[in-house]
Amino acid sequence: MTMTDISLATRARWLAVFSVSVGTFTLVTSEMLPVGLLTSIAATLGVSDGTAGLMMSAPGLVAAVCAPVLAFATRGLDRRVTLMGLMALLAVADLAGAFAPNYPVMLAARVLTGVSIGGFWAFAAGLGVRLVPEGAVGRATSIILAGVSVASVLGVPVGTFISSFAGWRTAFAAMGVLALALVALLATTLPPLPGEPRTRASEPSPRATPVRAPQAWLSGPLKVVLVLTVLIVSGHFAAYTYVRPFLEQISHAGPAFVGAALLLYGAAGVAGNFAAGAWAARNPRPVLVVLAVLIALATVALPLIGLPLAVLVVWGLGYGGVGVTLQLWIMRSGGGEMGTALFVGAFNVSIALGSFAGGRVVDGVSLSAVMWVGAALATVSAAVAALSGRAFGDDPRGRSRR
User: Fold this and answer.
1) pTM exceeding the 0.85 threshold for the entire prediction
2) 8 A C-beta contact, residue 343 and residue 298
3) What is the C-alpha separation between 229 and 235, in angstroms, rounded?
4) What are the pLDDT digits (tens) for 118-173?
5) How far is the C-alpha of 163 from the C-alpha of 391, rounded, in Å?
6) d(CA 194, CA 185)
7) Which intervals hold domain Major facilitator superfamily (MFS) profile (predicted)?
8) Helices and strands in the chain: count of H runs, count of E runs
9) 182-206 burial, b if ≥16 CB within 10 A, otherwise e?
10) Residue 140: how many CB atoms within 10 A of its CB?
11) Sign of the dihedral through C-alpha 7, 12, 15, 21
């Protein structure tokens, strides 16, 4: 093989990495879409804001179940084919949401979204080791996971921007078209990625993620990360799912201001993602403590001082780094593909729990009260993360000594 051939092969592998990253961005953006469109969808489909929040709860809960189930059930299938199928399912879900005539149809579409998210995210997170040389696995994994992190903070502003001039249905349709385009892109860029043979699970391929015993998936440090995932993500989404109604009804912001505020939040979140990723590579635990404190401060300040732009920047910086920090912690815990699947499950069930609990608080108490719920859970997250360092004895490189 000539140097030119090697160079072309290397570029092809990195193109595959970026394609998967765009795929994770598309999935999580689709999941986050209702947050910025909540009041518009609720008005069109004739439901309350709290009930409309189920559009976040449903896919989160379904994804939480599907992540470990699909990781186990499809372990013998080519990951290339699996990822293409899940992306095609997302396209169907987004387009069904765009044309939903009523709320039950919309919820059904969101269930399909959850299936796509749970499977694709769980498989994509571990693909770096199969796409690039060993020395570049960390970089490839960061790029793939950046799609999740960036979508978590930019998905809502993107949807809000599109809906501001073309309506919420157009925002869903646009994501459906993008998902269809990605099916073709994945087919073109991904190499064959054979799954693990069902009959010889004890002898995995050297380039495949090994199947591990359940006790390895649930090591002490991994349990801590899963608990922290539930706490901080559910607290965030209890509040953030209803940030648009809060800005409109409590801060009396108009549509243009809401769009600008969410874009500012998104920009701060992207900065937080890359800053936290670089810092957490050395030791993720103290990074998560800082991020949780920032979220707590922002969600307390929002109802108290009424300065949404400044507060949303702090909130974006805090939550923007949560996804990549938790994922790096998971990788250090050594859970393998199933460990990542459990993390994805915990992350998505937390979205469901948070948005559902927040909806009950919004309908039963007030929009301001839901911000206090988010602040309380973020504070508990910071305390648990801080105390976990003593429990598991972090070494200078951030690894557990147990």
Assistant:
1) no
2) no
3) 10
4) 888 888 877 777 787 767 766 777 788 778 777 766 777 777 788 878 888 999 99
5) 47
6) 19
7) 16-393
8) 17, 0
9) bbebbeebbeebebbeeeeeeebee
10) 23
11) negative
CB of 122 closer than 8 Å to CB of 71: yes
Beta carbons of 285 and 385 less than 8 angstroms apart:
yes
CATH architecture of 10-196+208-392: Up-down Bundle (1.20)
> Is residue 383 exposed (0-12), middle (13-18) or buried (19+ Cβ within 10 Å)?
middle
Domain ranges of the chain: 10-196+208-392
Helices (H), 167-283: 168-189, 214-217, 220-240, 243-249, 255-280
Residue 181: count other Cβ atoms within 10 Å of its Cβ. Answer: 14
Inter-CA distances, 333 with 127, 208, 289, 339, 398, Å: 17, 18, 18, 9, 10
Q: Can you tell me the distance from the alpha carbon of 67 to that of 64, in angstroms, rounded to the nearest whole number?
A: 6
| DSSP letter for each residue of 313-357 | HHHHHHHHTHHHHHHHHHHHHT-HHHHHHHHHHHHHHHHHHHHHH
Residues 6+ apart with CB under 8 A from 229: 326, 343, 346, 347, 350
Task: Collect all residues with Cβ–Cβ distance below 8 Å to 356 and sequence separation of at least 6.
Answer: 53, 54, 57
